[in-house]
Amino acid sequence: MKQTFKRWSKVLDKFVDVLGKETDMKTCLVCKEVMNQKFFHLCMKDNFNNYRTRTTCAECYNKDRMHRRRMNLLYEKPECCEICGKEKDLFPDHSHITSEHRGWLCRGCNTAIGQLGDTVKGLKKAIQYLIERDVYDR
Predict the structure, then answer these.
(1) What is the pTM of this model?
(2) Checking DSSP bridges between strand 25-27 and strand 34-36, what pairing results, if any?
(3) Are 80 and 45 in a shared domain?
(4) Sheet with 4-9: strands ordered across
(5) Would residue 131 count as lying in a domain?
């Protein structure tokens, strides 16, 4: 069984179970600083109602959230995802290097790009993998 500890959730106004230890140190994926888990927002529950912490510290997450909210106001939203073309809820996509708005994507497409590193190199590696191993698509 995974170790958990109690932490106060301002949003829920109660103590919740969080995966890990109260003394856990994490590295923010954005600023690369190592800090105590208390400097990371809580997010998502698992099947056992345990929360985990985000991968970016609260300061970096809040900056990014503010930037994304501004994009909602500045850029016109199309009717469908700019990759898959499906009419779904759309989210502003932006470069994590330049912070420039790139377009509007559905959650699935945005997550897929992010999981591949948000880079053309990552996408090319995935394409090469499929080319080499997918015998049904030739």
Answers:
(1) 0.58
(2) antiparallel
(3) no
(4) 4-9, 14-19, 51-53, 42-45
(5) yes
